[in-house]
Prior knowledge:
Blueprint: E1 2-6, H1 13-24, E2 28-32, E3 37-40, E4 47-50, E5 53-54, E6 60-63, H2 70-82, E7 86-87, H3 91-97, H4 100-108, E8 117-118, H5 123-132, E9 138-142, E10 151-154, H6 157-169, E11 174-178, E12 186-193, E13 196-204, E14 219-222, H7 227-239, E15 244-252, E16 255-262, H8 268-274, H9 278-289, H10 297-301, E17 307-314, E18 336-342, E19 345-348, E20 360-367, H11 368-371
Parallel strand pairs: 1-2, 1-6, 6-7
Antiparallel strand pairs: 3-4, 4-5, 8-11, 9-10, 9-11, 12-13, 12-15, 13-14, 15-16, 17-20, 18-19, 18-20
Helix pairs in contact: 1-9, 2-3, 5-6
This protein binds adenosine-5'-diphosphate and magnesium ion.
Amino acid sequence: xxLAILSRSLKAYSTRRLKEAALDRGMDVxxxxxxxxxxxxxxxxxxxxxxQKQLRSYDAVLxxxxxxxxxxxxxxxxxxxxxxxFCANTAHGIANSRDKLRSLQIxxxxxxxxxxxxxxxxxxxxLPAIERVGGAPVIIKLIEGTQGIGVLLAETVKTAESxxxxxxxxxxxxxxxxxxxxxxxxxxxxxxxxxRVVASMRRVAQGQEFRxxxxxxxxxxxVDLPEDYVEAAIRATQIMGLRVAGVDMLESATGPQIMEIxxxxxxxxxxxxxxxxxxxxxxDYIAAQVDFPEIDVRQRLTVSKGYGVSEIYVPEGSEYVxxxxxxxxxxxxxxxxxxxxxxxxxxxxxxMSRVLEPDDKLLCFGKLEAMKGMIPAKTRRRxxxxxxxxxxxxxxxxETSEDG
Length: 404
Ligand SMILES: Nc1ncnc2c1ncn2[C@@H]1O[C@H](COP(=O)(O)OP(=O)(O)O)[C@@H](O)[C@H]1O
Ligand SMILES: [Mg+2]
């Protein structure tokens, strides 16, 4: 098997360990500098050049894309995907993980624990936003920060307001987030590979510091994760579209709260702390998955007109409740059930003998027309009605909306 590790730092601990693990398993492995690729596009033939030579074929790619080269790095990964090479993390997953706002937006609808967070732009929205997440002390976070650098704790509302004003005046996008006080100075890093947590540690900040990043002096200890933490980490990774990820969680009074998901998690800290072979676990996983390159289902489905994937909701009182899947009219309507969602449970390829319950959701493939009227009510309809007349927004022409 031929494996390419995309990395800018040949000598970094993580790159060395991954290469070693691949060699140990008899793979033909190369570490390729992500910025030395050229991406060529022409009809029917996406291609890649590396150091001015056409790239040889690879079976799998393990991207290690640093935050400073996300755009170019994800473009290279996407090109490998379009060439049907298995990528341990997809371009889409990497891009999602790089933006703390985008990650939380995606996770929030899936009922995964996250710290309450708001994102505002208008000055008038700042104070109400701070109040909605529980008031001071409050966390202020740069959307694309790493290593704890862009995370601040404001002790009072006044300080928070002035920090936010300052950052916004510098054109920084920031999140206002509830300070999870009971987790002060601690967090959990779960290392997910595929559908397993292969190693985990707790990082503990030293002294007065509230940030537990190792780069801020945090000290790591191995930890045996309770099942709810394991499950949250794996689900979050999958929802983000990743397969190899370092999931950072706070230990809140109500269980795990996910802060961020790293798509190129470092190996040194976690391997040293746990003495586990995380690099080996990643390489073994790739070897097992290599025959299944990512398929963008939505992209492929556009070919079959009128067909698609949709979710069908089974409300209380529906004629489906209490029936076996085989006794419903789904197959008559030419609908295939791909997955059944029941509360927190996910049941892939459910058996035809399975009996439906109220509140089940069925992910189906078939004629979209046949699924009309069966899709779940939009979440926003469940919200309490807000009675308020909104004034027209006065148009202030201080900024143009043009790109560029
Ligand atoms: N909402 C919060 N409540 C309490 N501590 C937090 C919160 N958000 C972040 N922290 C602390 O700050 C650290 C860095 O935050 P994080 O969002 O992971 O940013 P970075 O990408 O810079 O690591 C975390 O590891 C945690 O210790
Ligand atoms: Mg972090």
